[in-house]
Structures are given as C-alpha cells and as structure tokens.
Amino acid sequence: MGLQDLALIYHSQYNLDLPGHIFPAHKYSHLYNRVKKDPVFASWDILRPERALDHDLELVHTKEYLDDLFGYEHTDRTIYSELPLNQNIVSSFCYGVGGTVMAMELTSKYKFAFNMGGGYHHSFPDRAEGFCYLNDVAIAIKKSKETSENHKALIIDLDLHQGNGNSYIFQYDDNVFTFSMHQGNIYPRKEISNLDVHLEPGIKDDRYLTLLRDSLEKIKASFQPDIVYYLAGADPYEDDSLGELKVSMKGLKERDQMVRSYCTNQNIPCVITLAGGYARDFRDTVEIHFNTIAAFGEI
C-alpha cells in the first residue's frame, strides 16, 4: 500500500495563557476545534506527540542555554525572548518540538505530516529570540541525521519574518537548503539563507505567488531534498497586525497549494508547521492555518 496523504498532530500543551500579548497562543486549541468541526476532518485521528527528549534538544541547543531555560533564569541567553519564562511555557515548547520530531518520523508512512504547532524559527543554539525558545525544525533535521547522515532537507519558510535561526544553524551544512521569503524591512536581524527573498511592503497576490513559483523552480534546479519542512506562517496576510504585506486569504491558499504541488510532483514528503500569525481578527489567523491543513489534506 502506498503512503497515506496526511497525518495531523496536536497536543493541548501547545496552548498558553498570555492575556493581552500579541502572540495568540490560544490559537492552537481553536484550530483543533475548527478541524474537529469540519465535515471532512472530524473523523480523522489526531495524533498526540510526546514531550521532546533532552537528548533531542541537545542536538541543536547548548548545555548552558538549556540550563538557563529549564532553570527559568533571565540571563543573556534567555533575555531576548519576547515571552514570559516559566514552567508552563517551557513545557509547551517541549511538546511543540516533540510534535515536529513526530511529524518527521511519520513521513515514513505519510506523504505529509502536519504539526498543529511549531515553527519556532528564531531560536538560536545558544539563545532565545522573538517568540521562540526551542528550534523544533532544526532539532527534527538534526535527529533525522542520526540515522542518515546525508539526509537532505529543504526548509521552505514563508512566515512574514525571516527564519534567521535556521539560516544560522545550517549555514555550513550542504545537506540542508534554507529558503526564506519574508518582508525585508522588519524584524529580525537577518542571517544568510541559501535563498532569501526580501519582500517589499504592499506586495499583493500575483507578485507574491510569482516570486514563490520562481524561487521553487530555482531550488528544484539546484537541490534535490529527501524531505521538505514547510513553515506556513499566516502572517503574510493583508490584515496582519505585525506586517505590511497584502496577500489575501485566497493568495495564501494558493501559496499552500503551490508548496503541496512542489512536493507531490517530486514525490518528496513534507513536514508542515504553523509558525506565526497575528491577524487583527483572530478568527482569520485560525482560518488561514485551517486552510493550510485543507490544502495538504485534499482527497
């Protein structure tokens, strides 16, 4: 029997109580409920990840940083986070990492594995940054290399913000190709990806999708991955509170379908994570994430 199409992964620990914070950390439960109410997906099993192992975290992060993180210490290694630092938040990140590692492992049985969390792409080996304490995608890639040293991974990062943590971590790894398409004139301080596309404010659907299509063609001509990690940020959306891109909800659907087709046409499995999303109407963020699930769950 061939590969099934899509695995969905979720844990209630993904959710955080951050009243008044710009990061909508309760979006995960709302997305889960949206999936369970959908006529197509309601009957699907949603898999539950384990908490990430210490060994796995150490594949990317330094001992000194992890000591500070699990000690809930505000030091020069943790201070650049824009989230509180406490047991519940650190535990949430550990389950988020576990979800992406589980998704990576499930690509042996599924074409697509969707972690309804994760995408913590600003986290560096030795420090937190932004809303990111642990780098789940980098950890999953490093873990896959334990069994296949030459395993080739492509990161397609379509969040509003550059995936600077991943760009830094894999800058000298020829078996990992980092591609980030993001608004160029905002946070974070940029690292160098294998392919960076810096978008101007105000870009709309047609130009955005043309740049994505051209970029994927460039990558296809130069790099043949064994797996794709897609960070499907909802924040390029035209009504996002942190961005100035003008991509519609329809345009983001086409973006997701384009990435799906890229993987399907080359028969490459794909891990999908949520990454960011800060729409002025919170329901839009949830719907954009749901649309990504729908794009990869097409029957």
Description:
Pfam families: Hist_deacetyl (PF00850). Residues 21-280 form the Histone deacetylase domain. The chain has helices at residues 27-37, 54-57, 63-70, 87-106, 136-144, 164-169, 205-222, 249-266, 282-296; strands at 4-9, 46-47, 110-115, 153-157, 176-183, 195-199, 227-231, 270-273. The protein is α/β, with parallel strands linked by helices and 299 residues long. It has a single domain (4-296), classed as Histone deacetylase domain (Arginase, Chain A). Helix 6 links the parallel strand 4 (153-157) and strand 5. Helix 8 runs parallel beside helix 9 (282-296). The longest helix is centred in the N-terminal third of the chain and has 20 residues, at 87-106. The protein is globular. The two termini are 16 Å apart.
| Uncertain runs | none
| Total helical elements | 9
Mean pLDDT, as a whole number?
96
- How helical, in percent, are the residues? 25-40%
Question: Might you state the CATH topology name?
Answer: Arginase, Chain A
How many discrete domains? Answer: 1
Strand order of the largest sheet: 2-1-3-8-7-4-5-6
Rg (CA only): 17 Å
Strand segment count: 8
Distance between the termini: 16 Å
Largest sheet: 8 strands, parallel
The fourth-level CATH homologous superfamily is: Histone deacetylase domain
Shape: globular
